[in-house]
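Thread: Modeling a multi-component assembly for a lab meeting

Hi all, long-time lurker, first post. My supervisor asked me to bring a structural picture of a complex we are working on to next week's group meeting, and I have zero experience with this. I have the sequence lines for every component (232 residues in total). Could someone generate the structure of the whole assembly? Inputs are pasted exactly as I received them:
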Amino acid sequence: AQKVTQAQTEISVVEKEDVTLDCVYETRDTTYYLFWYKQPPSGELVFLIRRNSFDEQNEISGRYSWNFQKSTSSFNFTITASQVVDSAVYFCALSDSNQGGKLIFGQGTELSVKP
Amino acid sequence: GAVVSQHPSWVICKSGTSVKIECRSLDFQATTMFWYRQFPKQSLMLMATSNEGSKATYEQGVEKDKFLINHASLTLSTLTVTSAHPEDSSFYICSARDVQGSLYEQYFGPGTRLTVT
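Re: Modeling a multi-component assembly
Sure thing. I ran the full set together rather than chain by chain. Output:
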């Protein structure tokens, strides 16, 4: 069965600290995609990244970076030098061919960045 | 590009009434749209997959007679919550898949906050 686990329910950091949000997934499929979304208080989902199962290269986008490790079924997200505007709920999600493109979301991690 | 709108953005209705929520793809055609529900402090749960011109596919535990989905065109899907009750109060989010895009790519609408009193 497909499953996404975000063990950290809430994280609180002080501005400028680095923070890593963990994501562990389960799937039997060899072809799948992993996603990260940000949900600010407004509720609208903001797409951050999509990564397919054949591309284990880590990615960096500004202060954001992602570490994909198939060996541990993890797709962790790091924010460097966090800012107050990073405060939001972050969701990791999985989609595989067995699901026909449907997204399975993790429970979400609420990040609070304090000034 | 790839903009999805939802209308209304929020709605308050009385218990027992029905509410219709629209999901539109503004600059692309979507043969498939998804409807999610999110309760406070919880994750998004897929309710149903809406396919243009055919019946929606509902996830286990979702009452198809209560949550009516119509996908009458390539740019519009509607979700009607019939005989709404306070427990239906939630944040409803739709997403759409571009007919020319990847199976794995969805564009999300801004959500509709439903409060049933």
